[in-house]
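Issue: copy button drops trailing tokens. Both records pasted manually instead:
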Amino acid sequence: MYLISFGTNGKDLDRRSVLESVLKSTAGIQLGSYVEAEGKALFELTKKKGMEGIVAKRKDSIYRPGKRTSDWLKIKARLQQEFVVGGFTAPKGSRKHLGAVVLGAYTKGKLRHYGYAGSGFTEKGLKDAVDRMKPLFIEQMPVRQSSQYQGKDPIDTA
């Protein structure tokens, strides 16, 4: 990727040819196949097979490391929602580290509270989650909770 993104200074280049010449398939790394001019049909097949989605890109686009552009798109076939972890509730009873994570998502440009998720964690998973979030703690909850929230637990933010 260095050669393609920096070594060529964004010059017009067939990235795939460069990758094919330098990349050797090994366990966990391989150059993926591609489909040209049949993106809609591929997407329909992806949905039919229950796959996650496809990546579409303009063939003449320039790779811009660290920047998102409309030239490269991740198109999801499964109906799903991505959430932001806006904080977590205090643990209750014998549970340690955290109760549930507070979930939010962007709707019309604003971060909105969507609910909580807390099942499926092991004790080690709970501790690891809190340890990973600690450097991200802030003073104020970024997700405004719905008025239906009745809990009295303090919220730590991550």
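Record 2 (pasted manually too):
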Amino acid sequence: MPAMHWAIGILIFLATVIFMEGFAYVAHRWLMHGPGWFLHASHHRPRHGNWEWNDLYAAIFAVPSIVLLLGGVQWGWWPGTIWIGAGIAAYGAIYFGFHDIIVHRRLQHRYLPKSSYMKRIISAHRLHHAVETKDGTVSFGFLWAPRPEELKAELKRRGNAGVRAATATTRDRVEHP
């Protein structure tokens, strides 16, 4: 198999990371909040211990990346599969760092968001978690999200159905809006 120019590989890698945001939105909205709720529901409830059933999604979504990397490196597949597999893995690493470490504080840190982008994404994610039920939540994206004001208005329009009581504690020790 002929080698691929590194610039093409980088473009494929970046396109894959961007594509993964759309894939994550679709998977979160229609899989995790659909037939996969039996695993994802654990993520909308207080966590006891280090793990929750929802963590299995990380292993499930890692399989295509591993297979593509293995195929490209060891099995002689098209060289682009390496860059696609790496892009999926990079998105997973970004997701873990942002979602599990920064937002849900599964590892202790002192990071406080300063940029308007980070504040917006964190607020949108917390508004998503303000709803404890399978239906009625907002903001399914990860690297892009609507403004918190729009999300709050949408929750209000829906009559705040499923919204967590204001006195409830959260697993990430930061009050949800």
